[in-house]
Design a protein that fits this description.
The complex is a heterotrimer of chains A (456), B (415) and C (418). By secondary structure, chain A is of the alpha/beta class. Chain A is 31% helix and 24% strand. Chain C is 26% helix and 24% strand. The chains are: A alpha/beta (456), B alpha/beta (415), C alpha/beta (418). The interface between A and C is large, with 51 and 40 residues.
Chain lengths: 456, 415, 418
């Protein structure tokens, strides 16, 4: 009797031990699927707004957006029925992670100041003047190689609802290297860089001499084309030479025993030098990456459009403040604009919401901070744009759908729709309201705020 | 009956209201009893397995068999060593950078007061606390012949009043070895010029002091004019405010003791650095019993040989020696390392440990408060994992004025 | 011309006509305006849901629900409008360029001398900023005295509301003169002149503090410094005797400590400006009723964030401190660090709604608080009898995030209409 009982107890324990790990699976926790119910969802998907609807997230992706919430069984539910959800926002042109962090002014002495002419180190000069960065950047430099991905400020930006950013090297130089798309709050450094070649960056703005810059850029592109031509010629010559070598070995002997063909001997062609800068530009010329040109004033915009005309690249204007004056020129060339960081232009006493103007003409417009620390002000500035005539939907589109489309990532980010990454922001009010606060951040379906170590 | 009851209630209320004024033990400064495996008192020998009682920010009792009273928080350091907080008499870490310690336009700046630029809670001071340094002489730099006046302060505290031990702490002089770089077109590019400036200044202060002393003691009836620059450094000539002289090389060191000790009678003037051959003045310094503060360089390459500085001075008979870091010349937290290096360069453990505790305190007359573990002194106590001269050891806890400002288990290892 | 009767009549008509015109002009000046039917935010405690403001000769004579309006009053129907007092900018140079003088101290210099009273400040007025404290630059220790002006626009001249309103004092690294001998020991030349030491001093905050403390003593300076600073000390005495508030621009804890000590030693009212490390001093600020002019780098029409491209990071903004100070009950006035953002003063204050601070409290930072700081609460900063009629007409519009400014009245005259 006793033995039987023991056996039964043992059996029970054995079975329980087996089942316990299975319990989470039974409750659908295994792959982290969640169902979000919300008061209102701005999907940025064709302007669709869902009230009292729901989002099903499986495996970090959105699989379904329901017009009326119908949570499946055994899936963890998140109750945001008092909240509004928007897609994670994108800062379409940023320098985050590149803040000048030589030293902390207040706790450590500055580096020694080396006096000009004499080279004497003056340790006591106090605060060292810092010059604006005219960092020499070449087209082959990649921002993803140099960004400080562990900059604690990324957390600040995330808490404002910025989940992705197009990040470029901060410089006033003509070439700004290659920008990349970063996804904030990702678990691993690999996930942080969504795409390490998001755009070839150039700057016409910030320099009174657009003529020089246009000339230099034109030459840069031409040189790249010539470089390609030289490689193509090399390849052709190489083939001819190789054919010749083959002919030499395979042709039958002549009557008098001579080998070879009748044509002159072709020498082995010299391989041209590989140039990574030209290679980088060719990526842009082959429209493998968009060309981002920082242009604000009308003449800068025109110069950028000329580049587009001649080289047939895919042009995106960064800034684009005065582009509203020439909407047809942009539309006919399918040029989009990453506007910002300002919203209103003061022109002879008139205040012009250039973002509204561009959107009204049908141009794709995204929005950016164009700085290393301005991302948190994105929604505040868009609220200002809303004040001056932009609709909330339009404002939201600039930091979601349009931004994703410009960088060709619409299948992954920029909207709440089936197939997209489950990146969204939970608000306690309408977006772009000054009292609205972020209540939750989700990246790939994973809750990053208010838990997971991120403190408010 | 009613009257009596009223009187009773009145008395009770009065007592209660007085009780409100009684200094209760502050929440973060309860009385402590520290049990340590080895207590290095510095002045009164080593106590094995002893106890130190701390109350109201002071050391209440030190000894071997002490009964720990009730309500004392016990700190069990029975596997560890207990030493007094270290004293660094040459430091520039109390501020927030180079702009806070030097104004190098005029060669003489007696009015500049480092007290105005103190910053508490800087990362540098936090590291210092984590490395057991509790008192520093925070002074202006040596960019000018007279950089101003320094302050003797603790490295942590709740407010400025608690932190400042004495202000003015010292009158900072740089005789040579830095100020000469700055002046072009003015007297002071060479040693003669600099010494002339300083001599003039010191004699002015001396005359001012004599003037006022004569008036205050009734000898003279004429009231002298108040000079704001000299008013608060008069005490130099009362022997209260020491002159602290940064100097190097043989001749300038010689000039220092001849000018300050012999000519002006300031026997408590301290020589600091003293490198690049200054040690050759050893015998003269020892006769005058001048205090010598060594660092941050602890050695000299001189006459094709490598010499430990303190060793050379000590060989000549100099007894009052202390060791500094000249932070931020090197990190304030490296004081214990400086001491270890000094031992490596030829002095003995005892001198090294005294050089980072009691000797500097004595030089400035603050040894009634800091520098050793003795009853009545400030409760500046540091728990080490072992001998601080063995660099493999580190600090477990630092207490200043009876409050624990650093504890490894609570704050993590900061240094 | 012969004095015939006809001519007399003509002359009489002419002069009467002239008199009438003049009289009309004078009468126009002595007219009464009533703004009725509006939601009035007086900023001194009361909000009238539907009220009337009666104005005579540019001054408010009555505010309330049941205000009797005289028959000859010009009525401005303001139904659906929300009225606020004109906004006050607590700091601004209103003039390009930093100072070029080498003097560390010039307490007798006045901002009124560098302010263009004939300028058109419409870009401020049309956004609601009707008056401003014109301050002195931040790159010398005592650059001089600031003044409060009413900003003029489109033909209306600016006017001086208060001369010598406060003494500007700047602490910190920016305000000290750099030593001129940093190219050394190159021979003296035009590029590297030998500047007298006196003009280079102070070159560190240590020197700056000392010199400042000395200046404020009753008997400062002897010897070589007296020659240069005696005049400054004398004119400073005059300011002190007038009881001017000291506006001390500072950042670090040591500088704040210096400011408080300074103000205490001379018994002058103190106002802190900037003061990033102010959090540890809140108790003392409350005890001594010290207001703070808080500088923020938030601007809605982003002109590039101030911490971009490795620019000079000497100025730190108080953005994170502002909500803390307001919640603690400290009197705060808000200004943008970048003066180009001044017209957006209203929007800048409303940014702090995200911290849970209500709109009214934030508007106080640009109305009543600055008025009190500059001792002008009897004239501006609120809508109550006796105050100047500087009134902003806002209207709530569908789709707009904040109310839209429709009309601006300055001293009883409409100076801007949308």
């Amino acid at each position: 009797m006793k033995n039987n009982k023991c056996l039964r107890q043992a059996a029970c324990l054995f079975i329980c031990a087996f089942l316990i790990p299975a319990f989470p699976a039974l409750f659908g926790q295994e792959d982290g699927s969640i169902y979000i119910k919300a008061k209102k969802i701005y999907t940025s998907d064709g302007g669709r707004i869902v009230t009292a609807g729901g989002i099903l997230v499986e495996g970090g992706k959105i699989t379904r957006v329901d017009a009326k919430a119908r949570p499946p069984k055994n899936v963890k539910e998140l109750d945001f029925t008092k909240n509004i959800i928007i897609p994670g926002m994108m800062d379409a042109y940023s320098h985050m992670g590149f803040r000048d962090e030589d030293y902390d002014v207040r706790t450590e002495p500055p580096p020694p100041y080396r006096a000009p002419l004499t080279g004497i180190y003056l340790l006591f000069y106090g605060q060292q003047e810092r010059q604006p960065s005219s960092l020499r950047v070449e087209p082959r430099f990649k921002a993803s190689d140099a960004v400080y991905s562990r900059d604690p400020r990324f957390k600040d930006f995330l808490l404002e609802g910025i989940t992705t950013a197009a990040i470029a090297i901060p410089t006033t130089n003509l070439s700004g290297g290659v920008a990349f798309i970063g996804k904030l709050g990702s678990g691993s450094p690999e996930d942080f860089v969504m795409s390490d070649t998001a755009g070839a960056v150039f700057a016409f703005a910030g320099d009174r001499n657009v003529m020089n810059r246009y000339g230099d850029l034109h030459k840069m592109f031409r040189d790249a084309q010539d470089y390609r031509k030289s490689w193509e010629k090399y390849k052709k010559d190489l083939k001819k030479y190789q054919d010749q070598q083959i002919d030499k070995t395979s042709l039958p002997e002549g009557k008098n025993g001579e080998k070879g063909s009748e044509t002159k001997d072709i020498q082995e062609p010299e391989e041209p030098k590989k140039d990574e800068n030209h290679e980088a530009i060719l990526q842009a010329l082959d429209i493998k990456v968009p060309v981002l040109i920082r242009a604000s004033r009308e003449n800068e915009v025109q110069a950028a459009l000329k580049i587009q005309d001649e080289f047939k690249v895919r042009l995106v204007l960064v800034g684009g403040q005065e582009a509203y004056k020439v909407p047809q020129d942009l539309l006919s060339r399918k040029v989009s604009v990453i506007a910002g960081p300002d919203v209103i232009l003061n022109k002879k006493g008139k205040r012009i919401n250039y973002i509204r103007e561009l959107l009204a003409d049908g141009i794709q417009v995204a929005f950016c901070s164009s700085s290393s620390s301005g991302a948190p002000l994105l929604s505040y500035r868009l609220a200002y744009a809303v004040q001056h005539g932009l609709s909330r939907i339009q404002a939201l589109d600039t930091v979601t759908a349009h931004a994703a489309r410009i960088f060709g990532l619409s299948d992954r980010i920029g909207s709440i729709a089936a197939g997209r990454d489950a990146d969204f922001v939970v608000l306690d009010g309408e977006p772009f309201g000054l009292s609205t606060r972020v209540k939750g951040i989700y990246i790939g379906g994973r809750q990053l705020f208010p838990e997971e170590g991120i403190q408010e | 009956m009613r009257d009596k009851r009223l009187i009773l209630i009145f008395c009770v209320m009065m007592c209660l209201s007085f009780a409100a004024f009684l200094p209760g033990a502050q929440k973060d400064r309860p009385p402590y009893a520290i049990k340590a495996g080895k207590i290095l008192t510095i002045t009164k020998g080593i106590i094995q397995n002893g106890v130190v009682l701390v109350k109201d920010g002071k050391i209440e009792k030190v000894g071997k068999d002490i009964t720990i009273p009730a309500r004392y928080t016990v700190i069990d350091a029975s596997e560890d060593w207990l030493l007094p907080g270290m004293v660094d008499i040459h430091s520039h870490t109390g501020g927030e950078g180079y702009g806070d310690i030097n104004d190098m336009v005029f060669s003489l700046n007696p009015g500049l007061r480092i007290l105005d630029t103190i910053a508490l809670n800087t990362a540098g001071l936090e590291r210092a606390v984590a490395a057991g340094v509790t008192t520093i002489n925070h002074i202006p730099g040596s960019g000018s012949n007279n950089g101003g006046t320094g302050v003797i302060m603790k490295t942590a505290g709740d407010d400025l009043d608690e932190v400042v031990l004495r202000f003015p702490g010292v009158l900072k002089i740089a005789q040579a070895g830095n100020p000469e770089r700055r002046w072009s077109g003015e007297i002071g590019t060479g040693r003669m010029g600099m010494t002339w400036h300083l001599r003039e200044l010191m004699h002015q202060i001396k005359a001012y002091h004599a003037e006022w002393q004569a008036y205050e003691s009734g000898v003279s009836k004429e009231k002298p004019e108040k000079n704001v620059k000299f008013e608060y450094i008069r005490e130099v000539f009362d022997g209260i405010l020491p002159v602290f002289v940064h100097v190097a090389w043989f001749q300038p060191v010689q000039t220092v003791f001849r000018m300050y000790h012999d000519e002006l009678g300031l026997t408590n003037a301290v020589i600091t650095h003293g490198e690049f051959g200054g040690y050759q003045n050893g015998p003269a310094i020892s006769t005058r019993q001048v205090h010598y503060d060594c660092g941050p360089r602890l050695y000299d390459f001189w006459e094709d040989s490598f010499r430990g500085l303190i060793t050379e001075y000590a060989k000549a008979g100099v007894k009052n020696i202390s060791i500094n870091t000249d932070a931020v010349g090197s990190g304030q937290e490296k004081l214990f390392l400086q001491a270890a290096m000094a031992v490596r360069l030829g002095i003995d453990d005892k001198t090294a440990l005294e050089g980072i505790t009691i000797n500097g305190a004595r030089a400035f007359g603050i040894d009634d408060r800091v520098g050793s573990i003795e009853v009545g002194k400030d409760a500046d106590l540091v728990v080490w994992t072992g001998n601080p001269l063995d660099v493999r050891n580190h600090v477990l806890m630092t207490m200043i004025n009876g409050k624990i400002f650093y504890e490894v288990s609570r704050d993590g290892q900061r240094y | 011309m012969r004095m015939t009767n006809r001519n007399r009549i003509k002359a009489g008509c002419f002069f009467t006509g002239l008199l009438l015109l003049l009289g009309g002009g004078i009468c126009a000046f002595g007219n009464t305006v009533a703004i009725s039917g509006a939601e009035i935010h007086t900023m001194d405690g009361r909000i009238w849901e539907t009220g009337t403001i009666l104005i005579t000769d540019g001054k408010i004579v009555a505010v309330g629900r049941d205000v009797s309006v005289p028959e000859d009053a010009e009525i401005i129907e303001a139904g659906g409008h929300i009225l606020y007092p004109g906004f006050i900018a607590s700091s601004g140079l209103f003039a390009p360029g930093a100072s070029e003088n080498f003097e560390s101290f010039s307490p007798d210099a006045s901002a009124a001398d560098r302010f263009d009273f004939y300028g058109d400040y419409i870009r401020f007025v049309r956004r609601g900023v009707t008056s401003a404290f014109v301050s002195m630059p931040a790159d010398r220790i005592i650059p001089g005295k600031g003044v409060v002006v009413r900003l003029g626009s489109r033909g209306n001249l600016s006017s001086l509301l208060k001369e010598g309103a406060a003494l500007n004092i700047n602490l910190g690294r920016e305000a000290v003169l750099p030593p001129m001998t940093d190219i050394f020991p190159a021979p003296v030349s035009i590029e590297n002149p030998l500047v007298p030491s006196i003009k280079q001093f102070p070159s560190s905050s240590l020197g700056g503090f000392w010199l400042l403390a000395e200046l404020f003593r009753p008997d400062p300076f002897t010897g070589e410094l007296a020659r240069y600073y005696q005049n400054a000390a004398n004119s400073l005495k005059e300011s002190l005797e007038a009881g001017l508030p000291l506006i001390v621009r500072c950042r670090e804890a040591a500088e704040i400590r210096m400011a408080i000590r300074l103000a205490r030693s001379v018994g002058m009212p103190l106002v802190l400006q900037g003061a990033e490390d102010v959090e540890e001093w809140i108790e003392i600020l409350k005890e001594n009723d010290i207001p703070v002019i808080a500088e923020t780098d938030v601007t809605p029409n982003g002109q590039g964030h101030s911490r971009d491209f490795g620019e000079k990071e000497d100025r730190w903004s108080m953005t994170e401190n502002i909500p803390v100070l307001i919640r603690q009950g400290i009197r705060v006035a808000i200004v943008p660090m970048d003066e180009d953002g001044l017209p957006d003063l209203f929007w800048i204050t409303q940014y702090f709604r995200r911290y849970g601070i209500d709109a009214e409290e934030l508007i106080r930072t640009i109305t009543l608080n600055p008025a009190k700081i500059f001792g002008l609460e009897g004239r501006i900063g609120s809508l109550s009898p006796g105050k100047d009629a500087d009134i902003l007409f806002f209207k709530r519009e569908a789709g707009a995030v904040l109310p839209v400014l429709k009309k601006v009245m300055s001293q009883g005259l409409i100076v801007y209409e949308e």
